[in-house]
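Action item from last week, closing it out:
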Amino acid sequence: MDDARLISRTAANRRLFADVLDELGEAHAHDATLCAGWDVRTLAGHQLQPVHVPSWRFLLTAARQRSMARACDVHAVRLGDRPLAEIAAELRERATDGSRPWFIGRAGPFTDSCIHLRDLAEPQGLDVTVPIEDWRTALEIIVSPRGRASFLPVEGLLDGLRWAATDVAWVHGEGSAVTGSAEALAMVMSGRSGYLDRIRGEGLAVLRARLE
């Protein structure tokens, strides 16, 4: 998917995220999400990071914090420190805006937009998700060398396993089978262990052990 298409799809997914924020409202601002340690407000702030924080500024924060993850925390908390309705409005208004991350490019915010929509909606029992082709593209990005470095929670998570989607033509790797919807595969690959009950195959035990 070229940059123009990635920007367009990221924008559509940000608008979906904004819709869920508005549906939840401020009363749910401190509800848990699938992102460990992040409530709804913090996750919403993180969605604005590519819009407000150029790569050089993020790298400077990471150097000061001595951690990419802590740099994300810092910016997410800062950008989320306002009413959810304001964040939702800005996500819509600036849906096509944003920096091009230095390491992974437009593929990073796009994949984030898929995963974080489910991080927000899943704990709320909402079935809002991105189109199946977005999930297929996200899988291709995650298994790429830079995608592995950006999204896998554990080095070697994918190794020795044959990942196969059940709802779209997509297969990756060789070894013990790990099957599930494209959404479930992408969420598990990115460390969402709550999706393990949607995975099947003889590789599940190995996968579970690696994530734990």
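Closing note: The longest strand covers residues 161-165.
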